[in-house]
Design goal:
Blueprint: H1 6-18, E1 29-30, E2 42-44, E3 49-53, E4 56-60, E5 68-69, E6 82-86, E7 89-94, E8 97-101, E9 109-111, E10 118-124, E11 127-132, E12 136-140, E13 148-149, E14 159-165, E15 168-173, E16 178-181, E17 189-191, E18 201-206, E19 211-215, E20 225-228, E21 236-237, E22 250-253, E23 258-262, E24 264-268, E25 276-277, E26 289-295, E27 299-305, E28 312-316, E29 336-339, E30 346-361, E31 367-382, E32 389-397, E33 401-408
Antiparallel strand pairs: 1-28, 2-3, 3-4, 4-5, 6-7, 7-8, 8-9, 10-11, 11-12, 12-13, 14-15, 15-16, 16-17, 18-19, 19-20, 20-21, 22-23, 23-24, 24-25, 26-27, 27-28, 29-30, 30-31, 30-32, 32-33
């Protein structure tokens, strides 16, 4: 389970906005000093970056440059595939192994998992859900002490990945496509409008607006990457820059860009519509390739599985958007006009659709102004009380959310 706190998402957004567009190529840098195992999934805590491996858990306290084992309580022979979190602490899980930590991953205590084989964890309303590759979807209401099978209407289901978006839970399966519960697991529906119901869904992600699903060749032929603009009701296959028969092992919202792992690393700067190979300085001869990502306030990290000489690479977030030719965040799905920009006193906002809410954040990610609109297509904001400087304006309309750079003079 990958966690980005709201403040970090805003920090990532500001890195994108403040970056000057240059002709310098972004570079991935090897960063696995002290780490020699195959990485599975990353997790961000308030103190460190964690990564699961075949021999437990490793931690980095310097943005992923150096690593040290952080597996107190986990036997070296136990592989960790994924992480989760709820109010009781952090969780690390693997094949018939589950551990909980109350000290941000410094030490772990074992929990009884029985014969379950967990590939991914998710939390909805503090209830733990787990994708079991052998049994299906399981859940725990007592912080991982006991687990029960969730009936989503398909016998012999094999669950591969999970995604929670508020109270909505998505479950990707082996050869049975994608399922969704809009009410925290009480009822389920199969999603097949635009995405094959026999697909193997390897990974799921959301950028807060769109939902993304990657497929892989595990019991079914891969069909590349799909995205949904309407919360999963309908799906569109991404066919620009990434093959429609590619295996997609991971999709990650890095705040300023989307990253996808399909042997090579792919990057999208337009909300997943188009993709480009993004492998500068990485040896592409690894037989398995990229598998997972994580980002903090300064760096984005990529993990590689296989026989690569270097298993973890990192890149400064300042480099993530180089060579884009884009100087500000572009709108998604709607046209919003903001003028004048720079603004001194009155800022005008006009939209093709009714505006629901407007928020302004300063460069530290602090919310400095909120306006609940009267559901009309034009608003006026008095920004004369704001200190001079750069801000991010977020406009929520009836169809989408739009982010724009704002300069106050």
């Amino acid at each position: 389970m990958k966690i980005i706190q709201p403040s970090i998402r805003l920090a990532l957004l500001f890195f994108s906005i403040l970056t000057t567009i240059t002709s310098v190529h972004a570079q991935w840098i090897a960063s696995d000093t002290g780490y020699s195992a195959l990485p599975s999934e990353f997790m961000l805590t308030s103190e460190s970056i964690l990564v699961g491996a075949l021999d437990g858990v490793y931690a980095s306290f310097d943005d992923g440059h150096h690593w040290e084992q952080s597996s107190a309580g986990i036997p070296d022979s136990n592989a960790i595939y994924c992480f989760g979190v709820n109010s009781a602490g952090l969780y690390a899980a693997g094949e018939r192994n589950l551990y909980r930590s109350s000290d941000n991953g410094q030490s772990w205590s074992g929990l009884s998992l029985g014969e379950f084989n967990i590939f991914e964890l998710a939390t909805v309303n503090d209830v733990l859900y787990a994708a079991d590759i052998d049994t299906g979807l399981i859940m725990s209401v007592d912080n991982g002490s006991n687990w029960n099978l969730v009936n989503i209407g398909v016998p012999n289901l094999r669950a591969y990945c999970l995604l929670n978006k508020g109270d909505t839970l998505f479950v990707g399966t082996v050869s049975n496509g994608l399922f969704m519960s809009p009410n925290a697991g009480f009822s389920w529906m199969q999603l097949s409008n635009g995405i094959p119901s026999i697909s193997t869904i390897r990974c799921l992600e959301t950028d807060g607006v769109r939902v993304f699903a990657g497929t892989s060749q595990y019991g079914a032929l891969p069909q590349g990457l799909y995205y949904s603009n309407d919360g999963g009701t309908s799906w569109i296959q991404s066919n620009s820059g990434i093959s429609t028969n590619a295996n997609v092992f991971s999709i990650y919202d890095a705040g300023t860009a989307l990253l996808a792992a399909s042997h090579d690393i792919y990057r999208s700067l337009d909300y997943g519509v188009t993709w480009e190979v993004f492998m500068d300085s990485i040896d592409i001869s690894c037989p398995y390739g990229a598998s997972s990502f994580i980002a903090n306030e300064s760096f984005v990290l990529a993990g590689f599985e296989g026989t690569c000489g270097t298993q973890i690479h990192r890149m400064s977030l300042l480099d993530l958007n180089l060579n884009t030719g884009v100087s500000e965040i572009q709108p998604l799905g709607t046209e919003v006009r903001i003028f004048p920009n720079p603004a001194t006193d009155i800022l005008h906002i006009q939209s093709e659709n009714d505006i629901d809410r407007v928020e302004i954040y300063d460069i530290r990610g602090k919310l400095v102004m909120t306006v609940d609109s009267r559901r009309r297509a034009a608003e006026q904001l008095d920004v004369s009380g704001l200190p001079r400087g750069l801000y991010v304006l977020m406009v929520e309309t009836e169809t989408t959310s739009v982010r724009r750079r704002l300069l106050v003079n």
